[in-house]
Amino acid sequence: MPNHASRRTLLTVAAVAAVTAAGAASAAVGPARNPGGPAPDDPRPGDRAPRRSPAPRIRPRETMARMSLAELVGQLFVSRAYGHAATGPDPEDAALNQQKFGVRTPAELVARYHLGGIVYFGWAHNTRSPRQIAELSAGLQRAAADSGAGIPLLLSVDQEHGAVARVGSPATLLPGAMALGALALGTGGSTAEARRAARIAGAELAAMGIRHNYAPVADVNVDPANPVIGVRSFGSDPHAVAALVSAQIRGYQGAGVAATAKHFPGHGDTGTDSHVGLPLMTHTRAQWEELDEPPFRAAVEAGVDVVMTAHIVFPALDPSGDPATLSRPIVTGILRERLGFRGVVVTDALDMAGVRQKYGDDRVPVLALKAGCDQLLNPPDLGLAVRSVLAAVESGELTRARIEESVLRILELKARRGVFDAAARDGEAFRATDAVDAAVGIPAHLAAAGEIADRTTTLLANPVKLLPLDPADRPLLLVTGTDPVSPTGTTGPPTAVLARELSALGCRATALPPARAVAAAPGNAAVLVCTYNVPEGESPQRDLVTELLATGVPVVLVAIRNPYDPARLPACAAELATYTWTDVELRAAARVVTGTVRPAGRLPVPVPGRYPLGHGLAYG
Asked: φ and ψ at 134, to 5 degrees?
């Protein structure tokens, strides 16, 4: 990369800074695809209506006419890159880049393959802190400006919130999908808070230079044993899920961040995780139309920018045995033609086992494009994938026109979400970190996250009226149970967070590991036990609850992920569902336990044998 700063570099630096500054204020947002656009939101923190940005100064067709085939093909790919900085990664990350891609730095990777996008991961060491992410984004955009066609990158991340989040504290962490589903049922079906949460999340991502989020999940979770979706879904009712999907799309895109409805045609009733195997969906066509289709139809009608495909086999929709990602009847026939989607179709990650079982890594990218996909996400061997697509064009299996069709959609998406807009305002210069400080983890956003979380906790059982505990009595409490690692690695552990918040509210709470909890239980007013995805049958978690109940001390069950846990455990003196084990949800649960706030959530899924859809108790 040249040492001097070209005019194009300076334009891109200004572009990135202006984009991030715009995101900090939830402003400078391109119009959504639906002509009328969403109505202005009420002026609460993180939920203000954006100003319209000037029309983008780009003509995609003219831009494509100047691009080489290699530059066009590069726009189709969204790859990982190792390291926290564009040009100065740690030696270990430089070695990984060299091993996987033949380059040392993320900037060199962008230049070598003319990439259309980079996806950020914690395990790739991209997400140390919001300020570092913003600086990485700016550095990657400089690399894109100085290479190939000079087209800015669409930087993306999996920031669903809840069980899947890559960017952690001090960024604002919000309740996940199923928690928002519980809130919506508790407020008579209102989706306003789901939209508000997405607006806050979008504003913070934009401030870090991220303009594409792989959320919301549009899958309808109807299988309690689903190993990969679960609480990532808003619930089991397709129409409730559809309404929440639409709300979050408008929230994200109102903040200038492309939303992604996933995983088409629906991953909510599968017993296999597509990361490790190829799931089989057994729904009939009629069941698909009733259960799985409504949220995706609603997403298209809401003007969603992107739809992500699922690596699942769905014989009722395509009997070929091909995964949906590689299925032309599903991607083109149903998504494009039946639902009328005209935006960008992105594959789920191509390094997942579900898409690699039937075809080799050289064929998968070509077949995905032939099916109708536009963006090829994180292939396991980027060089092989790029060469395979180029060879398919050279052989006539794919045409340049087919490549341009997808690149046109990608360029239009970049323009619509402000990636090009700010480049025209070459007089503006903002530091990326200033934008982060103005928008990410600010007190107004953190307060809003707490307010939203307060209305998600669901009181499932309270037969002896144990709850609420009165903190004025200074009750002695023991907190124990499972302590899963936070999705971002920046919060928790859950039992300690819950104990600290209970103590802050006036209780005398101590967190202990399960091995010490049973002996320490006597003398406490109650024991709160956190459970996490309790399996059917015997398990250490079941043993712990049984032994705690035998002490005679009242036990409060706190299901910190899937709300199905109570059906697999003995009945307790009180039972709660939080749907997420991040700090914001656990602090809200403590407030419910002490009566500081009243339980308001309602189950967005049934708990077989225990509780129906919509169940939830109140105090008094």
From this structure: -60, -40
Q: What angle do CA 532, 522, 574 make, to 5 degrees?
A: 45
Q: Order across the sheet with 508-511: list the strands.
A: 458-461, 574-577, 555-559, 526-531, 476-481, 508-511
Confidence of residue 423 (pLDDT cuts 50, 70, 90): very low
Strand locations in 204-282 (E) = 212-213, 260-264
Residue 479's DSSP bridge partners are: 511, 528
| Residues tagged active-site | 275, 348
Strands 164-165 vs 159-161: parallel, antiparallel or unpaired: antiparallel
* C-alpha span between 538 and 455 (Å, rounded): 33
What lies within 8 Å, CB to CB, of 168 at 6+ separation is 122, 127, 486, 487, 488, 489, 490, 491
Q: Which residue, 234, 371, 213, is CA-closest to 295?
A: 234
Measured CA to CA in angstroms, residue 596 lies from 145, 361, 469 at distances of 53, 55, 10
Supply 111's token pair: 């230049």
> H-helix or E-strand containing 591?
helix 583-593
Instruction: Give the strand pairing for 526-531 and 555-559.
Output: parallel
> What whole-number distance in Å separates Cα of residue 380 and Cα of residue 607?
38
For 73-87, give the DSSP string.
Answer: HHHTEEE---SSSSS
Q: Where are the beta strands (DSSP E) in 498-614?
A: 508-511, 526-531, 555-559, 574-577
If you average pLDDT over every residue of the chain, what do you get? 90
C-alpha span between 542 and 553 (Å, rounded): 16
Q: What does the pLDDT read at residue 569?
A: 97
pLDDT, tens digit, 9 for 90 and up, residues 160-196: 999 999 999 999 999 999 999 999 999 999 999 999 9
Question: What residues does 78 pair with on adjacent strands?
Answer: 117, 377
Contacts of 116 (CB under 8 A, 6+ apart): 74, 75, 76, 77, 78, 151, 153, 154, 375, 407, 410
Element (H, E) at 115: none
